[in-house]
Automatic annotation (TrEMBL):
Stored PANTHER family: BROAD-SPECIFICITY PHOSPHATASE YOR283W-RELATED, SEDOHEPTULOSE 1,7-BISPHOSPHATASE
Source superkingdom: Bacteria
Pfam families attached to this UniProt entry: His_Phos_1
Organism the protein comes from: Quadrisphaera granulorum
Stated name of the protein: Putative phosphoglycerate mutase
SMART domains hit by this protein: PGAM
GO molecular function per UniProt: phosphatase activity
Length: 237
């Protein structure tokens, strides 16, 4: 039987490192002021998507995004990093509808939603990593440095995919109650989408995802699918 709910993905708002193109895994950087604005704006996108369940839309008096027909998520799950937790809060997730939020109850922190661990590549840009390696390194194709003397090992793609599979295993039962929202990071959410679809995780390289963008994963006739991708708050003006 097809689940009643959909899986909504929300990438965190902009950080200084994200703007500079620095790989940000375990480093717990905060949102920039622009990132906080993006997170607040994402509430309107989420409200519109949640409102699709009842024919509601953006505008009106319901929830942080003003969707008249907005439906509370059955569950909100967040990465342990502050940039994701703050984004969820500013987007109204876990904030009671009576207080102008989107509801969904207290967000659950899941360590498996943390961003890809880049190991020795943490904080470096792609051009810097390529210069260091002397090749045309690509994250989804080549993975992270295995580590060495004085260097932390990086996480490999299949390891991140395994974490994503564990997340999906935990949230799938909740989809019987309604939509589930996951708030995390660019790379881990792209990999999670491939695990949901049942395709090779390297396909995540083609799933570009902007800061504070919303995506929707669902199914049709029990076949997992991608319903919406990279819905930026800017789309609503």
């Amino acid at each position: 039987m097809t689940a009643k709910g959909r899986l909504l993905l929300l990438r965190h708002g902009a950080t200084e490192w994200a703007v500079l193109g620095r790989h940000t895994g375990s480093t717990d950087v905060p949102l920039t002021p622009e990132g906080e604005l993006q997170a607040r704006a994402a509430a309107r996108v989420l409200a519109r998507v949640l409102g699709e369940r009842t024919g509601g839309g953006a505008g009106g008096s319901g929830g942080a995004g003003g969707g008249v027909g907005s439906v509370e998520p059955a569950l909100v799950v967040v990465s342990p990093r502050q940039r994701a937790r703050r984004t969820a809060q500013l987007a109204g997730l876990g904030v009671p509808v009576a207080s102008g939020g989107l509801g969904g109850g207290e967000p659950v922190v899941d360590q498996d939603l943390a961003e890809w661990d880049y190991g020795a590549y943490e904080g470096l840009t792609t051009p810097q990593i390529r210069a260091l390696r002397g090749d045309d390194w690509r994250a989804f194709r080549d993975g992270m440095a295995p580590g060495g003397p004085g260097q932390p090992p990086g996480e490999q793609l299949e390891q991140v995919a395994a974490r994503c599979a564990r997340v999906l295993g935990r949230v799938r039962p909740e989809l019987e109650r309604g939509d589930v929202v996951l708030v995390a990071h660019g790379h881990v959410l792209r990999i999670l989408a491939t695990v949901w679809l049942g395709v090779d995780p390297t396909f995540g390289a083609q799933l570009l995802l902007d800061t504070a963008a919303v995506c929707v994963l669902g199914s049709e006739h029990e076949v997992p699918g991608l319903s919406r991708w990279n819905l930026s708050p800017g789309l609503l003006g």
